[in-house]
Design brief:
heterodimer; A: 429 residues; alpha/beta; Rossmann fold; Ubiquitin-like (UB roll); de novo design (two linked rop proteins); 5-stranded mixed β-sheet; 4-stranded parallel β-sheet; 17 helices; 9 strands; 12% strand; B: 179 residues; alpha+beta; Arc Repressor Mutant, subunit A; Glutaredoxin; 2 domains; 7 helices; 36% helix; quinone (chain A); NADH-quinone oxidoreductase subunit F (chain A); iron-sulfur (chain A); Nuo51_FMN-bd_sf (chain A)
Chain lengths: 429, 179
């Protein structure tokens, strides 16, 4: 069974078995080469594994793009305190649905990555912090974890190596901010998912006060491929600064929405128009958000760039989580921006004043403009509030909330002006 | 292991069943066993708070003031602390919902593809307003933030089941399927 809209121009490393029911269970996964990388890793030393991942240039796929191997290398090696791994499966960035598909179709790909990473960072207990809302996916992951225990890939003396690892699936309870790494750790400790000031970084003081590595599902799912085939092999894709492949979750006004895995030097415009088929018949795209609602909006003229971290940044936005949202000319862009800001207003944890107040004020002002009561001073006011939200809080949620508003005004000012001056919308109904 | 659940996954059991029993005893029988398994996975008791609240919700259908008190006792926390945590997370129901809690994603991905019409259809079909439980106690419809299925709009979650690609015209069939 072909996964919906698979495309020949994709490079399907992580997504190769999406849509293949037989790859979900451990037997089927083993037949497809599963857990071979784990055997190889256990024959290497932990630091050797970290070194391969470092050399591969794999960067964190949760949004920040921090080099994974480097992150692992910050973990203490003295064994004085227990080390932990937290797999961040709290996928909730609007527009992003890649981790969900990795877990739903290839849970063992993620689990194998978790075991290898835990071994490399000398953790003896790992947690999968999984979004509570993903009820169907949670069942798949639970079954896979139990299978891995039964096969001896988890528990004591894994494959006779002398290495022990416990893995616990921990259910989130509905909070976007638990996807931020220190928010996740707060939540794992039985607290409100409030982010913490860094430093100390999680590698020094993380889960339960102990050294912890937090990695995204997609990052960990890439690890077995890298360990099995080597850093140079992984670097055949992508760019010098952004090696490998990445999943892009594409949604909104597209003919073929879905997940596409491409080499990181793939062209963004071709991803949108060729792989996803562009907007529905008779429509024109107006805006593309390439990395989840936290990254700047792009005009269609800006998207002729490669999808690497540096490529999208040079073109005026960010790769973020790879959650691509396409918006065509049928939509009121102001409403779309307001919906995104509403999300952040709802999800602000409330610790920092600028975020707690700023998100709500942005949403209120946008709502006022949307219903035709906008004032001329609203644009400078929105920009002023936005400026006071950026870089002034414990975590980046506040920045994220200001991004669609500020980039929206910069790139689509006519949309705001039409609403404020004429009470009309530039959408083509 | 009385109920056969592996300790690794006891902390991750979906908690919105169709059958809700608000007066069911907490932490007895198989749930006493589950509680012990949960506690064995964390270095201190407080860390078990989310899984324990989740389990309590699975048993009773919501988190009542009495549940908060019991959870606080068991984990050696204050009821105020437990409440402050429970109220932070949207999945903990601090008020009882209908038999079917219907959560419609109205995040940006679904909004662009007609989520508003799905919400409207559900409210009309159930004769309720947002967050209100229908007179027969069967349905509560709420809007929720992004359910991470933006490529399959509109995402609708009913209790522990997920529905993809729901259109306004599917609403009636969907509700019929529940009974």
């Amino acid at each position: 069974m072909a996964y919906p809209h698979a495309h020949p121009r994709e490079v399907r490393l992580l997504s190769k078995y999406f849509g293949d029911e037989d790859a979900i269970g451990i037997e089927g996964w083993a037949e497809r080469g599963g857990y071979v990388a784990l055997e190889k890793a256990l024959e290497m030393g932990p630091d050797e594994v970290t070194e391969v991942v470092k050399e591969s240039g794999l960067r964190g796929r949760g949004g920040a793009g921090f080099p994974a191997g480097l992150k692992w290398s910050f973990m203490p090696k003295d064994g004085k305190r227990p080390n932990y791994l937290a797999c961040n499966a709290d996928e909730s960035e609007p527009g992003t649905f890649k981790d969900r598909e990795i877990m739903r179709w290839t849970p063992h790909q993620m689990i194998e990555g978790i075991i290898i990473c835990s071994y490399a960072i000398r953790a003896q207990h790992a947690y999968i912090y999984i979004r509570g809302e993903m009820v169907d996916v949670v069942r798949v992951v639970n079954d896979a974890v139990v299978e891995a225990y039964r096969k001896g890939y988890l528990g004591e003396n894994i494959l006779g190596s002398g290495y022990d690892l416990e893995l616990t699936v921990h259910l989130g309870a509905g909070a976007y901010i638990a996807g931020e790494e220190t928010g996740l750790l707060s939540s794992l400790e039985g607290r409100r998912a409030e982010p913490k000031v860094k430093p100390p970084f999680p590698a020094q003081r993380g889960a339960f006060g102990m050294p912890t590595t937090v990695n995204n599902v997609e990052t960990l799912a890439a690890v077995p491929h890298i360990v099995e085939n080597g850093a140079d092999w992984y670097r055949q894709w992508g760019t010098e600064k952004s090696p490998g492949t990445k999943l892009f979750s594409c949604c909104g006004h597209l003919q073929r929405p879905g997940n596409y895995e491409v080499s990181l030097d793939f062209n963004l415009k071709e991803l949108v128009y060729d792989l996803c088929g562009g907007p529905p018949e008779g429509r024109q795209l107006r805006a593309v958000i390439p990395g989840g609602s936290s990254v700047p909006l792009m005009t269609v003229d800006e998207i002729d760039c490669d999808v690497s971290y540096e490529g999208i940044e040079a073109a005026g936005s960010l790769q973020g989580s790879g959650g691509l949202i396409a918006i065509d000319d049928s939509a009121c862009l102001l409403r779309s921006i307001r919906k995104m800001v509403d999300f952040y207003a709802h999800e602000s944890c409330g610790q920092c004043t600028n975020c707690r107040e700023g998100t709500v004020w942005l949403a209120n002002i946008l709502r006022r403009i949307e219903r035709g009561d906008g004032r001329e001073e609203d644009l400078p006011l929105l920009l002023d509030v936005g400026a006071n939200m950026a870089g002034r809080t414990i975590c980046p949620l506040s920045d994220s909330a200001a991004v669609p508003v500020v980039s929206g005004i910069q790139k689509f000012e006519e949309e705001f002006v039409a609403h404020i001056k004429d009470g009309t919308c530039t959408a083509v109904r | 292991m009385s109920d056969g659940l592996h300790p690794a996954v006891v902390s991750a059991q979906p908690s919105q069943r169709d059958e809700k029993n608000p007066d069911a005893p907490l932490f007895e029988g198989e749930y006493q066993d589950r509680l012990e398994k949960i506690l064995s996975r964390y270095p201190f008791k407080r860390a078990a708070l989310l899984p324990v609240l989740n389990m309590a919700q699975q048993v009773r259908g919501w988190i009542s003031p009495d549940t908060i008190k019991r959870v606080a006792e068991i984990l050696e926390l204050s009821p105020a602390y437990v409440r402050s945590v429970a109220s932070f997370y949207t999945m903990f129901q601090l008020r009882p919902a209908g038999k079917y809690l219907i959560q419609v994603c109205t995040g940006i991905g679904c909004d662009l593809c007609g989520a508003e019409d799905v919400v409207e259809g559900l409210l009309k079909a159930t004769g309720t307003r947002i967050g209100e439980t229908s007179a027969d106690g069967k349905y509560t419809v709420v809007e929720v933030e992004c359910l991470a299925g933006c490529g399959f709009p509109t995402m609708v979650q009913i209790n522990d089941r997920m529905y993809e690609n729901v259109k306004a015209e599917d609403v009636e069939g969907l509700l019929k399927e529940l009974d």
